[in-house]
Amino acid sequence: MPAAKPPEFRRRAVDLARRGDAPVRQVANDLGISESCLRRWMKVDDVDAGRREGLTSAERKELVELRRRTRVLEMGSVILKRASAYFARENVLPK
């Protein structure tokens, strides 16, 4: 998998492609990236700028963080339930 490009590189690549001096395919080849990659960057830029419907980068990042936190909290809940069941069994007096 190729290394991720820095945000400044992405922004400049999108700006070059939008200028329209050359086709997107040519701009991508000149920069050493795939055409689909450049088109995806353009789509993300459109969403972030509000020109297209979808989750912005910030919203997507927040969603990932919230899902991770929910997973951790659910795991903690399961652990507490198991622990309470374990200790409840130990406190039962034999007949």
Topology diagram in text:
Blueprint: H1 7-19, H2 24-31, H3 35-49, H4 57-90
Helix pairs in contact: 1-2, 1-3, 2-3
| CATH C-level of the largest domain | Mainly Alpha
Return the CATH architecture of the largest domain: Orthogonal Bundle
Mean pLDDT: 93
| Helix/strand order | HHHH
The count of strands amounts to 0
Percent of residues in helices comes to over 70%
**Individual helix count:** 4
Stated plainly, the CATH topology of the largest domain is called Arc Repressor Mutant, subunit A
Distance between the termini: 64 Å
User: Helix- and strand-based class?
Assistant: mainly alpha
In one word, what is the shape?
Answer: rod-shaped
**CATH homology superfamily of the largest domain:** Winged helix-like DNA-binding domain superfamily/Winged helix DNA-binding domain
Beta-strand residue percentage: under 5%
Count of folded domains? 2
Radius of gyration: 25 Å
Poorly predicted runs are none
Largest sheet: none
Pfam family, one: HTH_Tnp_1
Protein name: Transposase-like protein
GO biological process, one term: DNA transposition
GO molecular function: DNA binding; transposase activity
For the structure shown, list the relevant keywords.
95 residues, mainly alpha, Arc Repressor Mutant, subunit A, 2 domains, 0% strand, transposase activity, Transposase_8, DNA binding, Homeodomain-like_sf
